[in-house]
Amino acid sequence: MQAVFVSIYDFLAKRKLLFRVCLCLIFLVSIIGALRIRFVNDINKMIPHDPSIETMNEVISKTKAGEQIVCTVSFKDTSVYDPDSLIAVQEKLQTALYGIGGKHVKNIRSQTDEEDESKFSELAAEYLPLFLDEDDYRALEQMLQPDSIGNLLARQRRLLLSPAGSVAKQWIANDPVGMLPLAFARLKTLQFDPGYELYDGYIFSSDGKRLLFFLDLNYPSSETSINAAFFRDFDELLLKWSADYPELHISYFGGPAVAAGNAEQLKRDTLLTLSLTVVLLLGLTFYVFRKKRAPLLLMVPVLFGAVSGLAVTAWVQGSVSVMALGAGAVILGIAIDFSVHFLSHARNHPDMRENVRTLVFPLTLGAITTIGAFLALRLANAPLLKDLGLYAAASLTGASLFTLIFLPHLLRGSAGGEQERVVRKNFIDRLAGMYPEKNKWLLLLVVVVTPVLAYYARHVEFDDDLMHLNYLSPDLKKAQEELNRYNSYALSSVFVVAKDSTGDRAIEKLESAGRTISRLSREGYIRNYSNPALLIPSLKQQQESIRRWERFWDIAKVGSVVAMVKKEGTQHGFSAHAFDGFETTLRRRYNVLDSESRRFLEQMVPNGMGQQDGMHYAIAYLKVEPGARKTVLSSFDGDKTVVATDRQEVSEKLLELLHNDFSTILWYSGILVFLALLIAY
């Protein structure tokens, strides 16, 4: 190894022009390679790979709800109840948001859409068999008994005579036995969280003191730089409103806001840590070496290592986490050790050729052990640790090679590089000249303190809250706490997620888990649930529903039921032709959902359906009883078509993966260092 680097030194020492060309060329190639790198700001992409953790990430980021901004308006005085004033304020704020939103705001939803309910009524009548299940047919059998039909028609008549009769008469004429209300029961499955209620069409908290509305942005959460500009304008608007309306409290929270805040904070943190590191290193090296050029010469290998590290990372995987680069301050401190070691030796030994020969072994040994330890991070599950391992290993490789190949020539060309000189000792020199291993009191202190530190080290725990991976500004953190306080259902939910290349296949997988969900509900383990498969059946289920309808409504049953309805109808004051449309309802041929109807239904369950990167997601939300979560989660263990998880499951799995990762890294690093020292010495 010594002969190789000494030969390279001799070769370049005799060819100064070639040395300069090679130096410029490697920097140019590294810079060109580094410019190809893509920086990743998404915190969620940095968590370890595991089905339960990725499922929670999909729930958060792949559905429409994950891309929404939830805004709340309330009075600072919590005793005030004035929903009408909050509605007036919201309307003004909505107009202002459209004014500043420009290209950013796609839509603002503050009220439930009555047109959607009306359209669903029409759709339910058009595709009635698709919204009835086995339980509905069992209930229908009871409703079709002669006594039941008579009682039912009596209730229908009272309904028609009530103020709601103008609306009810449209469906009663075609469905006097009440099949449409059974279909409407599917809508109730969407009302998962009882923490909210409607007031004049607006969404309020259950106490009526907090109004909520939702922003849909034109750009996804990944477009952090674009969204950050909007949120800066939003914050300025809220600052102005807080001055104009001091009695109000307005806040917002959502995936795009968190992602934009993370990206901005990561940039600031990375710039701050690297700047402080560079300034401190330059100041320290100038103090030690007392030469103006010394700090700059020491930083050249570090700079090359950083650039070459980016180039290698871009070539291997194309992107790198900004959080991994944020650890660049640590890498800078390690990388500069190579050049500091070389320059410290050169202070007292001006013969550069001899310095190269002498330092090849210790520098390469130190580089191999350090680089190997960082490469062990590539064995971890977390993409963040993998990114850090690759970037750090590539950077330190570049810095160590530059120190041995190019730095000696740069030092030789500096003033006084070949001259004997008296080195004036400073505090660092005096500190390095101490021999702590000969101080028995210091050794005794180490022996006494080590068991104490070992005892307290056992109490260190991993922070297993995924949200702590994100940076939240004080305002965002407060908004999150408010939403969690009023939305306790979301915090205690179990999520059942199915995904496939098409939405229909994803729904079909979720339907297979629907039987388990229904059983758990009957057995009392689930208090409530929202399942999009009940509202948007798969094509296979739609075809089966139509066949079941046709089996149930055979020719004989249609004739007998229609006859009973007409007979009982006349007895309760209806005309003989009042229910002519009922026979048409029973005898017509039904079809599966067309594409427009399916899209409409999907829009009604934004939290239950999602699509991204060519994959479609169907998500059911289960509200479990206290103490039943393990039973509910274990019920889906044997089902390979879906993944069930909740926040606690994710926290437990994250803790397990991180523990395994660090144990693996510790073992590999320890073995590597042991072998390197064993071979070397």
Q: Given the helix and strand composition, which structural class is it? A: alpha+beta
Radius of gyration: 35 Å
Helix content: 55-70%
Number of helices: 28
The termini sit apart by 16 Å
Strand content: 5-15%
Please, could you describe this protein's structure?
The protein is an alpha+beta fold and 681 residues long. Helices cover 62% and strands 11% of the residues. It contains 28 helices and 13 strands. The strands form 3 sheets. Strands 2, 3, 4, 5, 6 and 7 form a 6-stranded antiparallel sheet that branches. Strand 11 and strand 12 (615-624) form a beta hairpin. The longest helix has 35 residues, at 255-289.
Summarize the structure.
This protein is of the alpha+beta class and 681 residues long.
Which keywords apply here?
681 residues, alpha+beta, 6-stranded antiparallel β-sheet, elongated, 5-stranded antiparallel β-sheet
Helices and strands in order, then pairings?
Elements: H1 2-13, H2 16-34, E1 38-40, H3 51-61, E2 68-75, H4 83-101, E3 105-109, H5 114-126, H6 134-143, H7 146-160, H8 165-172, H9 179-188, E4 196-199, E5 202-205, E6 210-217, H10 224-244, E7 248-254, H11 255-289, H12 293-316, E8 319-321, H13 322-326, H14 328-348, H15 352-375, H16 383-405, H17 407-412, H18 427-432, H19 440-457, H20 474-486, H21 488-491, E9 493-500, H22 503-522, E10 526-530, H23 539-552, H24 555-571, H25 580-587, H26 595-603, E11 609-612, E12 615-624, H27 629-634, E13 643-645, H28 647-680
Parallel strand pairs: 1-8
Antiparallel strand pairs: 2-6, 2-7, 3-6, 4-5, 5-6, 9-12, 9-13, 10-12, 11-12
Helix pairs in contact: 1-15, 2-12, 4-10, 7-24, 10-11, 11-12, 11-14, 12-14, 12-16, 14-15, 14-16, 15-16, 15-28, 24-25
